[in-house]
Structure formats: C-alpha cells, structure tokens
Write a structure and sequence with these properties.
Mean pLDDT: 81
Strand content: 15-25%
Structural class: alpha+beta
Number of helices: 2
Radius of gyration: 17 Å
Largest sheet: 6 strands, antiparallel
Helix content: 10-25%
Length: 137
C-alpha cells in the first residue's frame, strides 16, 4: 500500500496478482487479477487496515484447495456469479463479473482456485503487541 492509500500488486507485478485498495469510505478491500490483468475475484468485505485485507487474502489462499462456491443467478440482469460463503452467511469473495452460462461460471471458479493457490505466501507484519508490563508501566 503506498502513501496515497492506493494498492500495489503483489511482488511488483503490474498486471496480475493480489491488490489491496482503499475504498471511498477509508476502509480496504482486495481483489485478485489474472496474469492478463483482468480482475477475477473481489472481496465485498471491508477491512480497517491494509494488513487486515492481506491477512484475509492469505487465509483464503492457504485454504484454496478446500474452497467451495455457491453459484447463483444475478438479481438484476442476466448471468451467473460464484460466491464463496464466509462466516455468518456473508460472502468472503465473489466473481468480479457475471457469466452468461452456468458452466462458464463453474469453470471461472475453478480457474480462480488454481490462480489463488499459485499466489506466493505474503510476508505479513505481526499484529501490534502491547509493550506495557503487567504492573501498568
């Protein structure tokens, strides 16, 4: 994440990979781009810091082999989207666009899982730890 709050792609890649970005409300979300630059997945979840977005992505990446998606018809319009359900029934990640055919949407999810598994593990800073002693000093 640079000083302006705009996200940077993983490993300096200008076209593909992980990207955390600042939303208009000041919180963060992430997206995953294919090597051709097309966004294949986005997270509707909003994170308070770029580090939280990165940890969320890394947790999903680590469990890529076990991911399952719910494929559903879009509410307004034509097409199908895939959604990986998270806690409390809220989506953890979803397709970035709608697909005309159900089978195409299934294949897009499979390609997402492969792309996600290929992403390198991220070097994440540890969470801040209080330096206060138990006696309050």
């Amino acid at each position: 994440m640079n000083a302006s709050g705009r996200g940077n792609t993983a490993a300096g890649a200008s076209r593909g990979g992980f990207r955390a970005e600042c939303a208009p409300d000041g919180r963060y979300r992430w997206q995953l781009k294919a090597p051709n630059g097309r966004v294949v997945a986005i997270t509707p979840a909003l994170f308070e810091t770029p580090g939280e977005a990165e940890r969320g992505f890394d947790g999903l990446r680590a469990g890529a082999a076990e991911l399952t998606a719910r494929i559903t018809h879009v509410r307004d319009g034509i097409g199908w989207i895939w959604v990986v359900p998270g806690s409390r029934g809220l989506p953890e990640v979803r397709s970035s666009r709608a697909y005309e055919r159900y089978a195409t949407c299934q294949n897009a999810f499979r390609r997402f899982v492969v792309l996600l598994a290929k992403q390198p593990a991220r070097e994440l800073p540890e969470r801040a730890v209080s330096l206060r002693r138990p006696d309050g000093r």
